[in-house]
C-alpha cells in the first residue's frame, strides 16, 4: 500500500518535530516542508532529505540564501494528501482558503480557534470521531495534557468538576524575544483562563475551570489539579488508572522538578530530549475527602507530536481504531 503523503506548512518548533515523527511511520511520509527564510532549520531540513518549499514571493530570497526551493507552498500542497499546518497561530483562516482550493485535508495546531477546523482532536478522547474528516485541530500542549488525564478519569469514575492551575513556561528554549526572565505573571488576570474551555472543545460535558500564571522558565508547563469525581475512588485506584495510560509517565527516582524531567528526556536518547508523555509525580496523587489532587508536567514542544500522527491516521482512515493507532505511533516513536 502506498504511503499517505503529508506536507508540513511551517517548520518551526512543532513542524519539525511532526515531520520527523511522520517520516518514521510505516503508513505515511513527508512530501515537503515549507520555510519562509533560508535559516539553519531550512539547511537541516535539506540535510535530512526533506524537499523544502517556500512562499512564491520568497523563492528567490531562499535561493540567494543558498536554499534551492522545490517550489511554492501551493506546489507542495498539490503534492500532498494532507497538510499539517504548523504556522504561528492566527494564519489559519488565510491558509484554509488555500487548502480548500487545492482540495487537500488539513490539520491545525492549538494556536488556532476550534471554529476554524470545526473539530478539536485528542487521540485518547475522540479519535474515532475524526475518521475521514477534512479538517481538524490538534489542541494545544496544555489542553492535550489535560485531556489525557481527564478523559480516562471521566470514563472510570465520572467527573463532577475539574479545577486546575497552570504554571506556564514563558517561552520555548529557542525563543529570544519573549519573557519574563524574572517575574511571575498572572495571565490572564481576568479569570478564568481559556484553558478550561478549550478542554470542552474535545470533551464538551466536562465541568472545568482554570487559572494560569506565566513563570520564568522555558522547560515545561506544570499543572496543579483538583478533581471531584462522581464515584468514590482511592489514591490507589487513580494510580492504577494512570499507570495503564500509555501517554502518561510516572516520575520519581529523585526527579523533583521539570529540569530533571528534561534531563531524563536527554538520558533516554529521545530526539531533541523530547518528553512526549504527561509526566505525573505518582507520589503527588492523593485522594482526600473525596477529592483528587496531583501535579503533572507537560513538555510544550513535544506532547502534541504523537497526537498529530494519530490525527493524520484518523483523517486518512489508515486505522479505524484509536487504541490501535496510538499503539502504532507509540511503538515507532518509542513511547
Ligand atoms: P514557531 O514560531 O516555532 O514555528 C512557526 C514556523 O512557521 C516558523 O518556522 C515560521 O517561519 C513559519 N511561518 C511563519 N509564517 C509562515 C507562512 N505564512 N507560511 C509558512 N510558514 C510560516 O511556532 P510553533 O511554536 O511551532 O507553533 C506553531 C503552532 O503550534 C501554533 O499554532 C502554536 O500555538 C502551536 N503549538 C505550539 C506549542 C509550543 O509550545 N511551541 C505547543 C503546542 C502547540
Fold topology:
Blueprint: E1 4-9, H1 13-24, E2 28-34, H2 40-47, E3 52-53, H3 59-64, H4 73-78, E4 82-85, H5 92-102, E5 105-108, H6 114-117, E6 120-121, H7 123-126, E7 135-138, H8 141-157, E8 159-169, E9 185-186, H9 195-200, E10 208-215, E11 221-229, H10 235-243, E12 248-251, H11 258-267, E13 278-281, E14 286-288, E15 291-298, H12 305-315, H13 322-333
Parallel strand pairs: 1-2, 1-4, 2-3, 4-5, 5-7, 6-7, 8-10, 12-13
Antiparallel strand pairs: 8-11, 9-10, 11-15, 13-15, 14-15
Nicotinamide-adenine-dinucleotide is lined by residues 9-15, 34, 36, 55, 86-89, 91, 109-112, 140-141, 172, 300-301, 304.
Structure description:
With 335 residues, this protein is of the alpha/beta class. The chain folds into two domains: 4-139 and 304-333, 3-Layer(aba) Sandwich (Rossmann fold); 141-298, Dihydrodipicolinate Reductase, domain 2 (2-Layer Sandwich), CATH 3.30.360. Helix content is 35%, strand content 23%. The chain is built from 13 helices and 15 strands. Strands 8, 9, 10, 11, 12, 13, 14 and 15 form an eight-stranded mixed β-sheet that branches. β1 (4-9), α1 and β2 form a beta-alpha-beta unit. α1 (13-24) crosses α12 (305-315). Bound molecules: nicotinamide-adenine-dinucleotide (NAD).
Amino acid at each position: 500500500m502506498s504511503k499517505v503523503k503529508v506536507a508540513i506548512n511551517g517548520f518551526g518548533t512543532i513542524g519539525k518535530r511532526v515531520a520527523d515523527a511522520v517520516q518514521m511511520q510505516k503508513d505515511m511520509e513527508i512530501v515537503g516542508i515549507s520555510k519562509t527564510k533560508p535559516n539553519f532549520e531550512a539547511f537541516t531540513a535539506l540535510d535530512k532529505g526533506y524537499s523544502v518549499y517556500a512562499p512564491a514571493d520568497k523563492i528567490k530570497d531562499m535561493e540567494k540564501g543558498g536554499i534551492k526551493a522545490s517550489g511554492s507552498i501551493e506546489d507542495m500542497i498539490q503534492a500532498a494528501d494532507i497538510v499539517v499546518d504548523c504556522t504561528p497561530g492566527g494564519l489559519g483562516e488565510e491558509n484554509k482558503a488555500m487548502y480548500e482550493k487545492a482540495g487537500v485535508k488539513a490539520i491545525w495546531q492549538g494556536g488556532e480557534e476550534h471554529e476554524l477546523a470545526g473539530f478539536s482532536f485528542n487521540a485518547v478522547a475522540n479519535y474515532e470521531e475524526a475518521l475521514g474528516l477534512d479538517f481538524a485541530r490538534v489542541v494545544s500542549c496544555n489542553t492535550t495534557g489535560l485531556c489525557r488525564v481527564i478523559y480516562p478519569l471521566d470514563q472510570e469514575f465520572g467527573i463532577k468538576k475539574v479545577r486546575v492551575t497552570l504554571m506556564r513556561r514563558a517561552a520555548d528554549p529557542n525563543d529570544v524575544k519573549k519573557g519574563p526572565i524574572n517575574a511571575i505573571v498572572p495571565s490572564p488576570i481576568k479569570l478564568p483562563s481559556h484553558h478550561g474551555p478549550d478542554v470542552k472543545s474535545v470533551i464538551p460535558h466536562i465541568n472545568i475551570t482554570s487559572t494560569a500564571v506565566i513563570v520564568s522558565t522555558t522547560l515545561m508547563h506544570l499543572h496543579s489539579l483538583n478533581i471531584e469525581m462522581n464515584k468514590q475512588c482511592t489514591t490507589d485506584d487513580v494510580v492504577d488508572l494512570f499507570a495503564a495510560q500509555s501517554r502518561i509517565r510516572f516520575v520519581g527516582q529523585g526527579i523533583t522538578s521539570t529540569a530533571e524531567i528534561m534531563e531524563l528526556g536527554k538520558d533516554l536518547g529521545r530526539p531533541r530530549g523530547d518528553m512526549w508523555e504527561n509526566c505525573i509525580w505518582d507520589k503527588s496523587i492523593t485522594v482526600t475527602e473525596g477529592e483528587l489532587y496531583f501535579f503533572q508536567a507537560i513538555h510544550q514542544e513535544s506532547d502534541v507530536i504523537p497526537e498529530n500522527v494519530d490525527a493524520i491516521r484518523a483523517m486518512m482512515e489508515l486505522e479505524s481504531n484509536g487504541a490501535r493507532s496510538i499503539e502504532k505511533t507509540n511503538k515507532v516513536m518509542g513511547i
